[in-house]
UniProtKB/TrEMBL annotation:
Classification via Pfam families: E1_dh
SUPFAM superfamilies (alphabetical): Thiamin diphosphate-binding fold (THDP-binding)
Keywords for the protein's UniProt record, in alphabetical order: Oxidoreductase, Plasmid, Pyruvate
Protein name per the record: 2-oxo-3-methylvalerate dehydrogenase E1 component subunit alpha
Gene Ontology terms for molecular function: oxidoreductase activity, acting on the aldehyde or oxo group of donors, disulfide as acceptor
Organism of origin: Halobellus limi
InterPro entries reported for this sequence: Alpha-ketoacid_DH_E1_comp (IPR050771), DH_E1 (IPR001017), THDP-binding (IPR029061)
Residue ranges constituting the Dehydrogenase E1 component domain according to the UniProt record: 54-338
């Protein structure tokens, strides 16, 4: 056998394994032009087809509104999920209420579908520590450490095996997380433990400014499943029906003790977060290409072909989801400011002396600031 390598060609006799032994196909139901094979469409009723659409609008609208709040100084740094709507909604819709979801932050609608309170999600993004506790009570967590929470998924799955529940645990994370050691340990050990775990990677092809090809020499993330001895799949993440269908199967596999590595191939069409300027590292043409593959428009054309579009009153839907957001932000405002002590509260049952002295230091500084208040000349806003 003659093998082309990066440095030239080599003659090989031994049975080498290469990436070409494992071509990974992308699973799709509705293609980029809105064409689809009617036999491949999942068996959902009209209401469910419309629900998927509504949830995608929720995802889009809430991401916009959170960014607006951040711009007004009413929210901490938040990320945009623009472009990810099908990937988030299709995966969330396949989950059951008692499944555990570890989100990476861009999955507001998937959390809401499970019944998680929007107020608590908003509190989280305001940096209120209590929020993580409230989310955990709702079988949910937002993991800010890239890759760091993936071993927790394996642990929760292991616990589910011990307690013999019927639920599964899923983590959403990005392509960047697959470049961490924690990812490898988590998926590998989930395989060993037959954990009911779904590792749901939203491969949006960028980890902030690092492109996919600078993170790995592998052609796909899904193919790595074979090395861990688990099931793997690569799905068109801009096709909500393909994501939903594959995720429903992933859930069944996981429930029976087969962990899944799920790669949802998508693209973030806006900045990584409110503190990012993607024009500094991304080619505008690439972004435009992906804007043309918009997941919501693709699904609209499916609904039109199926004769379901007449049932959608988009304006009324947007007004309704806006009203829900307004109510949640009001509830978050009512929660009020928190005590500084909270910043130190949840790491240890008893605060160690080093943290205690940092807390006192902070309190002292804040008191000094209060004393200085009358000398501070405030600049007018604007
Ligand atoms: C352990 C850790 N290292 C670095 C960061 C800073 N950081 C935040 S998001 C991010 C990139 C994440 O990229 P990816 O996993 O592809 O997710 P995406 O944001 O593209 O959805 C980095 C490096 C972090 N939050 N945690
Ligand atoms: Mg990414």
């Amino acid at each position: 056998m003659t093998e082309n390598t990066t440095q030239g060609t080599v003659e090989l006799d031994a049975p080498w394994i290469t990436q070409s032994d494992l071509p990974v196909t992308k699973y799709q139901i509705i293609d980029e032009n809105g064409e689809y094979d009617a036999d491949a469409v999942p068996d959902l009723d009209t209401q469910q087809f419309l629900d998927l659409y509504r949830w995608m609008l929720v995802e889009k609208r809430y991401a916009e509104r959170m960014i607006n709040l951040q711009r007004r100084g009413e929210m901490g740094t938040v990320g945009s999920s623009r472009g990810h709507e099908a990937s988030i909604v299709g995966s969330g819709y396949a989950l059951a209420d008692d499944d555990y979801l570890l989100a990476m932050g861009r999955e507001t609608s998937a959390m809401l579908m499970k019944g998680v309170s929007l107020r608590d999600i908003l509190l989280f993004w305001r940096g209120i520590e209590d929020a993580q506790k409230y989310l955990a009570e709702q079988n949910c967590m937002i993991g800010i450490s890239v890759g760091g929470y993936l071993p927790v998924v394996t642990g929760i799955g292991w616990g589910m095996n011990i307690t013999d529940t019927d639920a599964v645990v899923t983590a959403h994370f990005g392509d960047g997380a697959t470049s961490t050691g924690a990812f490898h340990e988590a998926v590998n050990f989930a395989g060993v433990l037959d954990a009911p775990a779904i590792f749901y990677c939203q491969n949006n092809q960028w980890a902030i400014s690092t492109p996919f090809e600078k993170q790995t020499n592998a052609d796909s993330i899904a193919q790595r499943a074979v090395g861990y001895g688990v099931h793997g799949i690569r799905v068109d993440g801009n096709d909500v029906l393909a994501v939903y269908h594959a995720m429903s199967e992933a859930r069944e596999l996981a429930r029976q003790g087969n962990p899944v590595l799920f790669e949802s191939l998508t693209y973030r069409t806006e900045g990584h977060s409110t503190s990012d300027d993607p024009t500094r590292y991304r080619d505008g043409e690439e972004v435009d290409q992906w804007k043309n593959r918009d997941p919501i428009e693709r699904y609209e054309s499916f609904l039109q072909s199926e004769g379901l579009w007449e049932e959608v009153d988009k304006q009324a839907m947007v007004e309704e989801v806006d009203a829900e957001f307004d109510a949640a932000i009001e509830a978050a405002n009512d929660y009020g400011p928190r005590d500084v002590e909270e910043l130190f509260a949840y790491l240890y049952e008893e605060m160690p002396p080093a943290l205690e002295s940092q807390l006192h230091e902070l309190e002292r500084s804040l008191r000094e600031l209060d004393d200085l208040e009358e000398y501070i000349v405030r600049r007018p806003k604007g």
